Structures are given as structure tokens and as C-alpha cells.
């Protein structure tokens, strides 16, 4: 498995393209799909996964869906937010514990409400990788003063994430990567 980070759109959202065995997964293609598409050539895109419903993560997801025919996945609690931004429906609604596969790799959906009520992280236990959306950042965490946010839920979600092994590498929705070990003591 390998993956590529592309910084996209007006607030430099991290879009991740994960590839394994000629299959690909795209996380948060909010903007600039013309930058994303060249990295998908020759691969079957299994899914377009949205970590939550904010515009900087979802706006061009359906343009990418039209180009790749891949289904768009979002947590059930953020579906309405995405529909508001995009006026389109997801193809599959996610719940905590759902599994998304790419090639021989598996990602488990961890529901981490707080930044939005349907925020998720994607965890690959074998490779010790976490794609954390706008929940956990390097040295901080996502805003909780937005509609649908909850500081209390955020703290519970962070506690859950910080119980993962310390050597898990964390790739957030904005900014540089970190590890679970480096974020101990965040809350
Ligand atoms: Zn956000
Ligand atoms: Zn964001």
C-alpha cells in the first residue's frame, strides 16, 4: 500500500489517495480534482470517503464520482450537511465499525463526533495508520464552535483515539502528520 497527500482548495485541505493492488481510495476530494485525477489513472477507485460534511472536504466529491464512477461514502450523521453543500446524496452511509477495503488493505471507520456530529477517522490496524479528518491535528484538534460541533463529544472522541497504539501515524485533514504518542496529553 502507498498513499499520496495533495493539498487542495482555499484552506489547504489534505486530500489523500491510498493505493493498493491497482485499487484506490480517495479521502476528502474537496477541490482541485484535476490535480487528483492523474494519480488515479489505471486504478479502480473503490470509494470516495468523506471524513465529514464541511465544504472544504466535500465540494468536488461528486465531480470525482462522475469521472470515476466510485461511490461516495459519508457517516450517516453528516449526510444532511453534505446534501446541503452539494445537493446530492451519498451512495453509502457509514457507521462506527464499518470496514472499507482497498486492494488487500482494510480501513475501519471510527466515529469521532465533536467537530461535526458525523466526523469519522479511518484506521488501518496492520499498517498503524489513522486518517483523522478535522478531529485530531498535530498539536491540537478541530474546531468545536461550529453548527453541529460539541466540545464534550470532541473530548470523548479524542480520548478514544489516544488509546490507539502510540506508534500509529496520524494524517489529519489539515497540516502536517503526527503520531498518537506525540498527542498524548492533548486533553
Ligand atoms: Zn471541518
Ligand atoms: Zn477542514
From TrEMBL:
MF-aspect GO terms: hydrolase activity; metal ion binding; RNA binding
Annotated keywords: Hydrolase, Metal-binding, RNA-binding, Zinc
Domain Metallo-beta-lactamase: 12-174
Listed SUPFAM superfamilies: Metallo-hydrolase/oxidoreductase
Cofactor(s) it depends on: Zn(2+)
Xref: InterPro entries: MBL_Glyoxalase_II (IPR051453), Metallo-B-lactamas (IPR001279), RibonucZ/Hydroxyglut_hydro (IPR036866)
Name of the protein described by the UniProt record: Metallo-beta-lactamase domain-containing protein
Annotated source species: candidate division WOR-1 bacterium RIFOXYB2_FULL_37_13
